[in-house]
Amino acid sequence: MWNTSYVLVSRPLGLATEANFRREELPLAEPGEGEVLVRIDYISLDPAMRGWMNAGTSYVPGVELGDVMRAFAAGEVISSRHQNWKVGQTVTGLLGVQTYAMVKGELLTAVDTNSAPLSWYLGILGMPGLTAYFGLLDKGNPKPGETVLVSGAAGMVGSLVGQIARIKGCRVAGIAGGEDKCAFLKNELNWDEVINYKSIADLPAALKERLPNGIDIFFDNVGGNILDAALTNLARGCRIIICGAISQYNQLTTQGPSNYMKIVTARGTLTGVIVLDYFDKAAEALNDLSRWLREGKIIYNEHIIPGIDQFPFALNLLFSGGNTGKLLLQNKFE
Ligand SMILES: NC(=O)c1ccc[n+]([C@@H]2O[C@H](COP(=O)([O-])OP(=O)(O)OC[C@H]3O[C@@H](n4cnc5c(N)ncnc54)[C@H](OP(=O)(O)O)[C@@H]3O)[C@@H](O)[C@H]2O)c1
To answer: Which residue's CA lies nearest to atom 27 of ligand 1?
Structure first.
């Protein structure tokens, strides 16, 4: 058996291209003591992967040149020399952009595919789901009747944040790119207000008109001009949660908010969230998210691209808005 992997060989300037990776085909070895061999069925494509391609450390160190590209992934144990793992168990972990992973048993997490499809543990029941849940509830502390604005609203994290905010009794508004994404938020998720940032000339004016009482919680996935626009319409005591800034990840110089003094006027707070800080509390979130899914209170969509050879093209869909729902690569096995 052979493993196919994507190895980072140079650091992108702007969007990642195929030239930044070497596709490697290597024969699979047998696990050593304490190791587990996993067949990877799904690879999670996350905006953070673009940051991990840069040199240096942000909240985690960047991927070293010559290493397999880091990615969350899910699959099945096919060989094990670790006491906790048996052949046939389904697992997730940072398994990389490859078809098989040889890892230390301690680095794997068991997942139950009787209660949800394997791929969901990379999305709503995985890292992005925890981000939405704790980012909104722990950092935002939403109260019934408050106005919550979400950017990147039709994406994985954004669409879940808005749905949780609705469950908590908030009035929810979303900013997304394109008529179809806005129609999904308005008609299927029943959000109160949606704004297509790609077709609106004056976003601050639109926010003032649609959200006349101001924004109590702004959950920002995008940064740049959208963050600046939201800052012009804050309610007193607002909470601004910086989850990401996807508009900036491929820029050589990044744009900070020029309207930040509006936070002072509003007596607001601006805070960042990193999901890693919540992994030890995951069970609490997974209980709620699973229940809301069962009760039909949350709609969850995936966007699955078949074939590892679609990397890195598929990753870049995140930056063009080409994904509708949680973006995943699915490995194909003969
Ligand atoms: N802090 C943490 O621990 C943590 C953890 C997970 C994710 N995140 C962050 O959460 C955000 C969302 O991640 P996700 O996995 O849920 O991705 P996603 O929202 O499913 O996909 C990314 C979406 O971002 C939008 N976008 C891309 N470039 C844009 C631009 N220049 N301006 C405006 N919108 C743009 C696109 O939607 P449109 O079609 O609407 O433009 C695209 O579909 C990212 O910023 C990510 O880094 C943070």
So the answer is: 319
The architecture of the domain spanning 2-123+301-330 is Alpha-Beta Complex (3.90)
Contact 303 CB / ligand 1 (< 6 Å) = no
d(CA 95, CA 191): 36
Q: Yes or no: say if 192 and 173 are a contact pair by the CB < 8 Å rule.
A: yes
**Which amino acid is present at 291?**
R
What is d(CA 253, CA 328) in angstroms, rounded to the nearest whole number? 29
**pTM of the model as a whole:** 0.98
The answer to whether the CB of 128 is under 6 A from ligand 1 is yes
How many Cβ atoms sit within 10 Å of the Cβ of residue 231?
Answer: 26
Q: Which CATH topology does 127-276 take?
A: Rossmann fold (3.40.50)
Amino acid at 20: N
Could you read off the pLDDT of 198-224 as tens digits, one per residue?
Answer: 999 999 999 999 999 999 999 999 999
Best CA proximity match to 169, nearest among 192, 142, 150, 196: 142
State whether the beta carbon of 158 lies less than 6 angstroms from ligand 1: yes
- Domain spans, the chain: 2-123+301-330, 127-276
pLDDT tens-place string over residues 236-273: 999 999 999 999 999 999 999 999 999 999 999 999 99
